[in-house]
Amino acid sequence: MKLPKYGIFSASIKEFFSTLATITVKRSITCRMWFLSWKIENSVLPQRTKISPDLVDKLESLALVDFGNQEGVNCLEEAIRFADQLHVVNTDGVEPMDSVLENSAALRWRDDNLKLDDCAWELLQLATDTVEEYFVSTQGQIVGRIICAKNPTTL
Amino acid sequence: MAASSSGNRILFPPQMVGVVGLEIHAQIHAASKLFSSSGVRFSAPPNSLVACFDASLPGTLPVLNRRCVEASVMTGLALNCTINRKSLFDRKHYFYADMPAGYQITQQRLPIAVNGSLTYSYLGGRKRNQVVTKNVRIKQIQLEQDSGKSLHDDHRNQTLIDLNRAGVGLMEVVMEADMECGEEAAAAVRELQLILQTLGTCYGNMAEGQLRVDANVSVHRPGEPLGVRTEVKNINSARYVAKAIDYEIQRQMEVLDTGGTILNETRAFDSKSGFMPEPNLPPLFVYESVASVPAGVDPTQVVVIDRLKAILPELPGVKRAQLVEEYGLLPEHSFTLVNEVGLMDYFERVIQKTKAEPRKVIGWVIKELLGNLNQNGLRLTQSPISSEALAELLNILESGHISTSAAKVVFQEMWKLPEKSVKQLVAELDLELISDQEQILQICRRVVDAHPEEVRVIRAGNKKVLNKLMGIVQKETKGRTDPLQVRRILEEMTS
């Protein structure tokens, strides 16, 4: 399978890592049942990707995620390594799917009817900072932290 | 390179020309938003029209508004586009406080409509009375979400967020860089605005943000490669469209003239990055005709292009041509009638109530009425002279009770005193044409006798001096004589 370029990775990096955490947990469970697991040789995989400091900066600014330390970079490189395994699959002539439901699900729409919603009122009560029914936005950049999954699968 | 006195026109050095493309965001006129059921209204209390989905609460999903699909298909049809039977939704990721999700749902890969064209006109030529018609290609029309509003409170150094607008449906109309200057761009925007208003898909009120224009501007010498583009973003006033674009063209030319280079600052990241398919929305299908809808599909879940084609209203271009044909108007007149809000209806109401010829009526409507409205900064709805009143005035003129110059005087009085009737004013101002032939002859004789020198000159062959005598008669009679009649009498008397 041809992997999407880093451009798309950077855009959904939060989603990717949350997915990774899930996969990692599942895989470690599979490994315990050794008669069902399989190992992929390093030789069939592409070269291990190294993340340059420039790329780290760019990803940090695109994703507003702070991971510019060795642990964070290692985490990202391990995640890419894990995804590299997908190269083993032959996907010639196969169009990537946007969603597994895209061929079966029909896009259902609704009529142009108004529904009164008090959601914002509730949210305003919960927000830490409001000014006269406006939400107050944080100044400067919003930065989150990547939390690495414990025991990422190493190859 | 100076701006000429007649408004937008800028004198370019003969070699360089401007290249202008537009991205226009039109808010879809609908009761609810694109993917949620909260309302769409300008000036509502802050954060009162926000559904959980608009605030990007986890667990919420987009549900497409059928009206928005129909609106974009109708707009595509009116702009001669190919409607894509299948179109896709994407996420465009960027971080801004007024976009809680961190991405905007848009249609980047495969939008709802592509490859259309827009024909627009403006009044050009030295006297600005010649209709110049141009064409601009429409690259695509895509459905996308609007963002919320952020207000910057510099006093307390914070940003306030109102999500009322977050998620409102937009049609982004992308026009290719076929335009050369601000005037052309403004005319194209105006025509699009008229079309959208006629369709009812967007009310196009720029002051309320219902129509916003981003312009891509560059300059180059014809035949050479295109120059570096800069963006003029979020123009939200019709008057400012031309000014802002021309200013940018002029700025770029000045920079290049002095040997500098144009910097593109707005695109902080490559426009291709930050996109991914929207996984929560399957492809959007619209069908050509009722026959092409597959069996078993719920009819309420179907948009049929043919049905929408059938209910397309008459577009402005058609209306203009009809006015020319029906009333024998000049193209520039029908252009003005359709261009000014409500003027066409006003004109037709006057026509209905008067015996005067359409060509005469149009002169009054455009020169006198519109001229005065513009001078006083009034809209047609604020006109002190109603269509009935104008019709009455024209009827009195037609029946020969007053002269044209007298009618103009009455018009000005009607403007100042709208509560008085036309008949009243004519009587009060004593402007009724003198019908007594004897009286006219007497006055003419008096004038002729009082100016023997002029009479001698006329008899010697200089007929132009006759105008002077005519002027004196008109002044004596306070314009209450028919000029043609007076001329005839004077000519006789001085022959």
Q: What are the main properties of this structure?
A:
heterodimer, A: about 160 residues, mainly alpha, 2 domains, two-stranded parallel sheet, two-stranded antiparallel sheet, 5 strands, about 40% helix, flat, disordered N terminus, disordered C terminus, B: about 500 residues, alpha+beta, 7-stranded antiparallel beta sheet, 3-stranded antiparallel beta sheet, 15 strands, elongated
What's the SSE blueprint?
The complex is a heterodimer of chains A (155) and B (495).
Chain A: H1 6-11, H2 13-32, H3 53-63, E1 65-66, H4 70-84, E2 109-110, H5 119-126, E3 130-131, E4 134-137, E5 144-145
Parallel strand pairs in A: 1-5
Antiparallel strand pairs in A: 3-4
Chain B: E1 17-27, E2 64-65, H1 66-78, E3 82-83, E4 86-87, E5 90-93, E6 103-106, E7 113-124, E8 130-145, E9 149-153, E10 158-162, E11 169-179, H2 182-199, E12 211-220, E13 230-235, H3 238-257, E14 275-277, E15 284-285, H4 305-310, H5 316-327, H6 331-339, H7 343-353, H8 358-375, H9 387-398, H10 404-416, H11 422-429, H12 437-450, H13 452-460, H14 465-476, H15 483-493
What does it look like?
Chain B: This is Glutamyl-tRNA(Gln) amidotransferase subunit B, mitochondrial. Chain B: Residues 345-494 form the Asn/Gln amidotransferase domain. Chain B: It comes from Electrophorus electricus. The complex is a heterodimer of chains A (155) and B (495). By secondary structure, chain A is mainly alpha-helical. Chain A has two domains: 1-39, no CATH class; 47-88 and 127-155, no CATH class. Chain A has five helices and five strands. Chain A has helices at 6-11, 13-32, 53-63, 70-84, 119-126; strands at residues 65-66, 109-110, 130-131, 134-137, 144-145. In chain A, a hairpin with a 2-residue loop joins strand 3 and strand 4. Residues 1-12, 21-34 and 150-155 of chain A have low confidence and may be disordered. Chain B has 495 residues and is α+β, with helices and mostly antiparallel strands. Chain B contains 15 helices and 15 strands. Chain B has a seven-stranded antiparallel sheet with strand order 3-7-8-11-1-12-13. A three-stranded antiparallel sheet of chain B has the order 6-5-14, with no helix packed on it. In chain B, helix 2 runs antiparallel to helix 3 and helix 14 (465-476) crosses helix 15 (483-493). The longest helix of chain B is centred in the middle third of the chain and has 20 residues, at 238-257. Chain B is elongated, with a radius of gyration of 30 Å. In chain B, 38% of the residues are buried. Mean pLDDT of chain B is 89; it is low at 1-6. The chains are: A mainly alpha (155), B alpha+beta (495). Strand 4 (134-137) of chain A pairs antiparallel with strand 10 of chain B.
